[in-house]
Amino acid sequence: MKGIDGEALKYSGQRRKMVDDQLASRGIRDPRILEAMNRIPRHLFVHESLQHRAYGDHPLPIGESQTISHPYTVAAMTEALALKGKEKVLEIGTGSGYQTAVLAEMAGQVFTIERIRSISLKAQRILDRLGYMKIVFKVFDGTYGWPDQAPFDAILIAASSPSVPENLVAQLGEGGRLVIPVADNGGGQKLVRVIRECGTVRQEDIGDCKFGPLLGKYGWAEPLPPG
User: Fold this and answer.
1) Considering its fold, how many domains does the chain have in total?
2) 175: left (phi over 0), alpha (psi -120 to 50) or beta
3) Which CATH number fits the domain that encloses residue 67?
4) Domain presence at residue 192
5) Tens of pLDDT, residue by residue, the chain (227 residues)
């Protein structure tokens, strides 16, 4: 990330406080994640009127009924992927582009899919402005994944699914990890990590979470337009 002159320094104190109070103190241990989130100007990924709230412990609206996730959620999902620096990563739900930036700092290449064109284009402009060169964008139904680029070392889904989509698990390479919010029987959501290893697939719950729905063919059905 090149940064943007003074923008890279703006809110630097709030970024450090976010990392210390919201991430490190709550168990995020990967120093590369902490360093990346201390560098990335999160305020650029939200509307100018909300920039003063960008480093708080809450999601924020980004338009089209979409949000930028809590900083801790971004860090926890990234840490669950156990990235070392050279991985090929698929992100489903580009959103603001902030999670995309964190993944780009942590991995070798990021392929990111967003179903809403205006959201995708805005994220592309911000990430291009910040100098990220190893991100490939696509506007499409993310529940299909990106079969012609598979296998992936890691897949991150930034929306809640009724179950773990088997077609996405099939796009993981050997040793690959997939992290996805899944609806539970009680009406809540669990963050689930899927690991493909030695010809088997195993799942483990990471914790509670709250995301918007994963809409598409292999997620929740699109809501019908009004009358």
Assistant:
1) 1
2) left
3) 3.40.50.150
4) yes
5) 555 555 667 899 999 999 999 999 999 999 999 999 999 999 999 999 999 999 999 999 999 989 999 999 999 999 999 999 999 999 999 999 999 999 999 999 999 999 999 999 999 999 999 999 999 999 999 999 999 999 999 999 999 999 999 999 999 999 999 999 999 877 899 999 999 998 899 999 998 988 999 999 999 987 644 44
- What are the tokens at 45? 């990924």
25 noted as active-site residue: no
Q: Outline where 31-158 has alpha helix (H).
A: 31-39, 71-80, 98-106, 117-129
Q: Which two tokens stand for residue 25?
A: 């103190």
**Full-prediction pTM beyond 0.70?**
yes
Q: List the catalytic residue out of 69, 96, 120, 161.
A: 69
